[in-house]
């Protein structure tokens, strides 16, 4: 009798690791924030503040009118939608423009032989122990990255930079590219912790007392080994997910969405129109891990992200005219242009909704009949003028071929100082169904 015949379908499904065993049926206070993710296998690999919970994805799967067999996330981020889909037996399709995040997603979605991974870790450790201290390979990093005599501030102390370089050399020496990606991600997830800076929505700043904070090379090795061992245990314990296939598209979803093929639904959260640039937030990882090697590359990446920030001067496309709320908000923004912290904010907001419309129309073309889009979106505010994103989307929906099924507000975000104040901003789940 073949192995296949030994198990009935029921037996085989009981071998799968369920969504509940991944999340441990934890109680979450809100679906829209990844609070609590520091305890979730895979999600600890890189603390991704802007992620939503896997429970939100599960809610969308249960609540969708169509059965989901294939589901897309055009803004993959840390891969919450894709990974949750694998646990729920749905084939995920993900698009992500940031190459570090795309690798993070793929490292979570693939299947590994954990014995071989453990052997690769052994090789890395042995190589690092015999490596000579040098950070030659990091010579092309921006000048603020590594300690040097003529600088009074730097992100990495020199001994740590040398150790990062040795670790990267060791990873590059592995023959298996899937293993190389896996360990690069383990290193990537600890870079900020071993640096002299912290990063948040407002950018990068030096830690308090950074110049007296000391992380030794031994501590570096310990952190890297512990993180890697934990991740190996996690991929092993969760290797029998109901779906093991995935499609990852590395690139700009404004173009890539046209090539995804038929889908039953879309679950995602786009960047918000709040001047937050993910290229900035993940800049340390992008440079140190070698995804960026020139200012030109940095600019090109910024330009391929959604029009949600003003970090680079670019031609913003014109705002869609079909939403009164948007037209009014843009008029008000333009009238106070001189008071805005950046004069191009009105054009950025207009361009943001042009891009969002492009994505929703692109998804519409790929969705099966009555397929739904579940999107978590956030309001924004500049000089006291509110940009009500969910309301604007609801106005645009009929012009894009969708009916509005539901809008559910889930938590308030505090407006950043850049957005002109302390008032609370709304974050909402909007559900649209293909008409
Ligand atoms: C709010 S995050 C998504 C978080 C995700 N839902 C999660 O739970 O991890 C938005 C993501 O969109 C990505 N992004 C921005 N512009 C993009 C574009 N034009 N194409 C594809 N991805 C883009 C950013 O790099 C970021 O990772």
Count of distinct strands: 11
Q: What portion of residues belong to β-strands?
A: 15-25%
- Straight-line distance between termini: 50 Å
Taken from the alpha-carbon principal axes, the silhouette is globular
Secondary-structure element order, N to C: HHHHEHEHHHHEEHEHEHHHHHEEEHEE
Q: What's the story with the biggest beta sheet?
A: 7 strands, mixed
Bound molecules: S-adenosylmethionine
Helical coverage, percent range: 40-55%
Q: Which secondary-structure class do the elements indicate? A: alpha/beta
Task: Give the tally of structural domains.
Answer: 3
User: Number of DSSP helices?
Assistant: 17
Give, in spatial order, the strands making up the sheet with the most strands. 5-2-1-6-7-11-10
Q: Indicate the mean pLDDT.
A: 91
Low-confidence stretches: 1-12, 417-422
* Radius of gyration, CA atoms, in whole angstroms: 23 Å
What do you see in this structure?
With 435 residues, the protein is of the alpha/beta class. The chain folds into three domains: 16-111 and 247-269, Rossmann fold; 114-237, no CATH class; 310-435, no CATH class. It contains 17 helices and eleven strands. The strands form three sheets. The chain has a seven-stranded mixed β-sheet with strand order 5-2-1-6-7-11-10, with helices on both faces. A hairpin with a 2-residue loop joins strand 3 and strand 4. Helix 4 crosses helix 5 (80-88) and helix 7 runs antiparallel to helix 10. It is globular, with a radius of gyration of 23 Å. Bound molecules: S-adenosylmethionine.
């Amino acid at each position: 009798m073949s192995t296949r015949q030994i198990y009935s379908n029921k037996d085989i499904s009981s071998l799968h690791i369920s969504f509940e065993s991944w999340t441990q049926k934890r109680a979450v206070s809100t679906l829209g924030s990844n609070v609590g993710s520091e305890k979730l296998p895979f999600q600890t690999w890189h603390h991704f503040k802007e992620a939503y919970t896997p429970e939100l994805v599960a809610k969308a799967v249960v609540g969708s009118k169509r059965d989901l067999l294939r589901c897309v996330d055009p803004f993959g981020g840390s891969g919450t939608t894709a990974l949750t889909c694998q646990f729920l037996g749905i084939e995920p399709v993900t698009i992500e423009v940031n190459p570090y995040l795309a690798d993070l997603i793929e490292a979570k979605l693939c299947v590994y032989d954990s014995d071989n991974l453990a052997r690769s870790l052994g090789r890395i450790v042995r190589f690092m122990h015999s490596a000579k201290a040098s950070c030659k390979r990091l010579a092309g990093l921006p000048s603020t990255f590594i300690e040097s005599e003529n600088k009074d501030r730097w992100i990495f102390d020199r001994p740590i930079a040398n150790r990062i370089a040795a670790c990267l050399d060791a990873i590059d020496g592995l023959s298996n590219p899937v293993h190389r990606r896996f360990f690069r991600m383990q290193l990537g997830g600890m870079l900020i912790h071993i640096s002299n800076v912290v990063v948040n929505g407002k950018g990068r700043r030096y830690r308090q007392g950074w110049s007296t904070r000391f992380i030794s090379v031994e501590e570096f090795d310990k952190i890297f080994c512990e993180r890697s061992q934990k991740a190996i245990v996690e991929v092993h314990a969760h290797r029998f997910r109901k779906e093991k296939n995935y499609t990852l598209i590395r690139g700009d979803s404004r173009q890539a969405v046209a090539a995804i093929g038929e889908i039953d639904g879309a679950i995602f959260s786009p960047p918000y129109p709040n001047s937050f640039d993910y290229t900035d937030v993940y800049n340390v990882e992008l440079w140190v891990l070698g995804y960026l090697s020139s200012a030109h590359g940095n600019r090109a990446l910024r330009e391929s992200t959604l029009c949600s920030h003003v970090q680079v001067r670019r031609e913003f496309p014109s705002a869609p005219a079909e939403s009164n709320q948007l037209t009014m908000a843009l008029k008000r923004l333009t009238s106070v242009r001189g008071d805005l912290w950046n004069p191009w904010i009105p054009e950025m907001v207009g361009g943001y909704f042009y891009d969002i419309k492009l994505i929703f129309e692109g998804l519409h073309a790929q969705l099966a009949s009555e397929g739904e889009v579940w999107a978590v979106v956030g309001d924004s505010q500049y000089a006291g003028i509110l940009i009500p994103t969910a309301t604007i989307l609801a106005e645009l929906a009929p012009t894009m071929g969708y009916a509005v099924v539901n809008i559910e507000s889930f938590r308030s975000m505090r407006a950043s100082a850049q957005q002109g104040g302390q008032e609370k901003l709304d974050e909402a789940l909007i559900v649209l169904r293909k008409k």
